[in-house]
Amino acid sequence: MKPSTICQDWLESLPPTEGYLKKEQSIGREFLLEKGMPSKKDEAWRLSNFNKLNSFLSLPIIIDSKDVKSIFPEKDKNRERIIIKPNENPFLNINLPNGIEKLNSQEIEDNLSKIVKSTNIKNDISVCLNQASSSNLLALKVKRNSNQALEIIIPSIEGKSISTRIFLLIEEGAQLDLLQIFKGNTNSAQNHLIEIKLESKAKLTHGLISLGEEKESSSICTLAVEQSEKSKYSLHSIHHGWDYARFEPRIIQSEGEASTIIKGLQVTKSKEQIATHSLIRFEGPNGKLDQLQKAVASEYSHCIFNGSIEVPKKAQKTEAAQLSRNLLLSKRARIDTKPELEIVADDVRCTHGATVSQLQDEELFYLLSRGIDNKHANSLLLKGYYDEVISHFPKSARKWNFIEKLIQDIKK
Q1: Nearest Cα to 187, choosing from 163, 224, 161?
Q2: Does residue 304 contact residue 276 with C-beta atoms inside 8 Å?
């Protein structure tokens, strides 16, 4: 498929970049010029709303950070904060704690894009869109055996598109508590590519809060994680308020004996579409996975989940569980869910499943019979449904008021 006029115009509007991302930019642009944008023939994209995707591409890339005017909650004193703005040094006015350092040139050269390539995604449009447009790189390492907490905020700009690139190296035995906040704005777009490498016995607790908040905001985010032996990675994510959002977590247990926990929540209203396409692959024995994906769709909105688990022959004694649980709050809303297992190994314990239901009338009646009005009864039920995911976020995340937004924006 040749690139659409919108895609060509978008590519021509992109400014050139220098440094580590120059080669990446060339790869991404050449791919998009040759392959073009996805179509309904591409299995991973066939359910996408292409009108919304074209709107994503119609916005100019921001090259100046002076228009970023977002106001953020007060910083947690125990968690260093980094705000990523276009063409601005993210290390301005911050002092990294002793256990976190910037990667040197050789470390960047040795690691950048290696994890994304290992996922072997055919027609990797999401990654190429980022490669073609990113002009700034945040590359950090958490030093061996240290224990750190970090907050990374990425705001949007009205009427503009922003692309960000992040690489994190968690060295052997290190621990990081990472909270990432993506904030949308009116008629804005975000495109993120995050690569994370966990060395042996490293531990990463990763909270990701992605809030569109305003009308006609869009987000595409690829998260690629490589886990070495005996490493632990837990991801808790929320996507809400985006007119169009696509989240692609890809986790590779490269040596076995690693542990992965994923708990995701996506909530849609109006005519929004939010999709999660996950891939977890085991490249060694004794790996563990616990994955729960939740979705709530109301009004005319659309939630999508496609979860793939790959267990080749060398991944014996793998234990993997994947569950997709969904709430449909409107007859006109839509939920598509497709958990998948591809197992070649014969000594494994793997399960998957999916459910789509509504708020239970019996539970609602019980609350109403106790004197709780209908609005608050629905809010309590929804909060209980969300709690399995949001309870794992650090207390400092509550200052972003995402729980209130999740409850208030959903109409039964």
Answers
A1: 161
A2: yes
Is the pLDDT at 223 greater than 80? The verdict is yes
Residue 189 parent element (H or E): strand 188-198
Q: In this predicted model, which residue has the larger pLDDT, 353 or 403?
A: 353
CA–CA separation, 294 vs 288, rounded Å? Answer: 20
Q: Which residues pair with 338 in a beta bridge?
A: 306
Q: Which pair of tokens denotes residue 10?
A: 């978008």
| CB neighbourhood size of 98 (10 A) | 9
Using pLDDT thresholds of 50, 70 and 90, give the confidence band for residue 375: low
> Residues 281-338: pLDDT tens digits?
999 999 999 999 999 999 999 999 999 999 999 999 999 999 999 999 889 999 999 9
Rounded-to-integer distance, Cα 256 and Cα 229, Å: 5
Instruction: State the residue for tokens 């907490």.
Output: 149
Q: Where are the beta strands (DSSP E) in 283-328?
A: 288-297, 302-311, 319-328
Q: How many CB atoms lie within 10 A of CB 16?
A: 9
Q: Helices 50-58 and 5-13: crossing angle, nearest 10°? A: 30
Q: Which two tokens stand for residue 188?
A: 């804005």
**What does the alpha-carbon distance between residue 259 and residue 229 come to, in Å, rounded to a whole number?**
9
Which stretches does DSSP call E strand in 312-348? 319-328, 334-343
Query: 140 and 168 in contact (C-beta within 8 Å)?
Result: yes
What is the DSSP annotation of 17-61? --TTHHHHHHHHHHHHHHH-S--TTSGGGTTS-HHHHHHHHHSPB
CB 359 within 8 A of CB 381: yes
- d(Cα 129, Cα 314) in Å, to the nearest integer? 33
Question: What's the gap between Cα 379 and its chain centre?
Answer: 26
Q: Which two tokens stand for residue 306?
A: 């496609």
